[in-house]
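Example for tutorial group B:
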């Protein structure tokens, strides 16, 4: 690790050429180790990443923010996509894979009767919300969780600027979001039945409820029941955003195992195994509204995404990949807990194992300690963070080496906390999730 690493140099160029430096908040070095993060990759395969200096790291963090569900450059997937590319990826005529994929998604989501495709999660959510609002003939959306960068979602902060507190990315700015969207989208707290009911009573004109399939914890039965009861009574459309949770605990959404009955389910990220594809899958009568509301884009029909999703789904279903993700996530979560007890660190872990994460309990010092964790793990060859999107390429042998490294790093963390030397031990500045700081 040195300050003149090639990734850091390129990041400085990026900041001059692109506001914010890149297209995705989660890949900015400020979120990890501001001045020392490798930042760019030249190659990635399995769970290995080679940076611009030729250093090799093991990804025990984001795995392309959850999209590389099979691991990087999965052989079967790459070969299938390459074949597609050789036959032409965009054409005046339609690609047949669009039909095959829509049929596959209908098979796997038997409640549904219609599919629309996009490339990114936020685009698919735009489509889902447009269709749901059109069908309900009401504008107002109640939501919990994160649903992308779009106006319909950010508009919630026009009401109260801290409306997104507790929904993954708090404090997002509303600059450029039309003020006229104020009070069109209201938040409720995940898994909090009382708060949900209060929001629904205070907003009798809600037409759409939007929740994540799962993120840190699974939704409670009482929470799902409250949503379904009200939706039924008031003819509200339920959208389950499974962009992050999808394919990680079933052959589709989390909704398939908890009795939740959404009207529309949205997939993205893992669906294409890293290639750009997202899908809105919904009940036939509701999706048919798409005939009357204009949803159309050249790249929605690009072929690689369909081909990648077909192969990714084939592998996920054939190998029941979700079982592996849950097993590996459980091993890591248990190891974190055991090691936190061994080193007397205050730490808790979440319920949703395929996206396993730990939370420190040191108040304002959490970010300092997390930065120390990232710094010390990087020294040992790991791209690490306090949350890991488990992939099919995370095998047990890798895990045992990783756990040994965590053991050493937790010991360092404990000693540094006790000696009150956190700032001193960090080579650079402290990581941050805050949007404001990252963009200034
Ligand atoms: C639940 C959920 N919805 C929507 C999105 C937005 O997806 P994208 O970043 O592909 O636009 C994300 C991305 O993190 C997500 O986790």
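The residue assignment follows.
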């Amino acid at each position: 690790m040195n300050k003149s690493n090639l990734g850091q140099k390129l990041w400085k160029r990026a900041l001059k050429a692109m506001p914010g430096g890149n297209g995705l908040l989660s890949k900015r070095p400020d979120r990890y180790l501001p001045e020392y993060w490798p930042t760019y990759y030249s190659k990635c395969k399995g769970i290995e990443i080679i940076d611009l200096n030729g250093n090799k790291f093991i990804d025990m963090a984001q795995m392309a923010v959850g999209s590389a569900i099979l691991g990087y450059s999965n052989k079967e997937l790459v070969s299938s996509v390459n074949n597609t590319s050789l036959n032409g990826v965009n054409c005046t005529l339609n690609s047949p894979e669009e039909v095959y994929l829509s049929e596959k998604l209908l098979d796997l989501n038997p409640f549904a009767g219609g599919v629309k495709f996009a490339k990114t999660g936020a685009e698919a959510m735009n489509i889902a919300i447009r269709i749901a609002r059109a069908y309900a003939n009401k504008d107002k959306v109640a939501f919990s969780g994160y649903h992308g960068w779009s106006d319909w979602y950010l508009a919630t902060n026009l009401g109260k600027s801290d409306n997104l507190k507790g929904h993954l990315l708090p404090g997002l700015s509303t600059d450029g979001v039309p003020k006229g969207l104020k009070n069109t989208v209201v938040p409720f707290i995940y898994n909090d039945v009382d708060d949900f009911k209060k929001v629904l009573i205070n907003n009798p004109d809600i037409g759409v409820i939007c929740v994540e399939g799962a993120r840190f914890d699974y939704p409670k039965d009482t929470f799902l029941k409250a949503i379904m009861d009200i939706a039924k009574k008031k003819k509200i459309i339920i959208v389950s955003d499974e962009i992050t949770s999808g394919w990680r605990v079933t052959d589709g959404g989390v909704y398939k195992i908890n009795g939740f009955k959404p009207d529309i389910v949205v997939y993205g990220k893992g669906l294409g195994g890293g290639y750009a594809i997202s899908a809105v899958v919904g009940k036939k009568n509701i999706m048919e509204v798409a005939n009357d509301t204009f949803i159309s884009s050249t790249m929605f029909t690009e072929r690689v995404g369909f081909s990648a999703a077909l192969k990714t789904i084939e592998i996920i279903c054939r190998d029941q990949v979700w079982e592996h993700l849950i097993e590996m996530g459980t091993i890591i979560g248990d190891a974190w807990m055991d090691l936190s007890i061994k080193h007397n660190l205050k730490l808790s872990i979440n319920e949703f194992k395929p996206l396993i994460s730990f939370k420190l309990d040191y108040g304002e010092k959490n970010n300092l300690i997390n930065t120390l964790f990232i710094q010390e793990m990087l020294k040992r060859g790991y791209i690490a963070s306090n949350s890991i999107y488990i992939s099919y390429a995370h095998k047990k042998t890798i895990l045992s080496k990783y756990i040994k490294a965590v053991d050493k790093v937790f010991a360092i963390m404990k000693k540094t906390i006790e000696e009150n030397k956190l700032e001193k031990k960090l080579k650079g500045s402290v990581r941050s999730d805050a949007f404001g700081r990252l963009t200034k």
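Residues 120-122, 125, 145-148, 212, 241, 243-244, 268 surround pyridoxal-5'-phosphate (CB under 6 Å). Compare this with the pattern of hydrophobic and polar residues in the output above.
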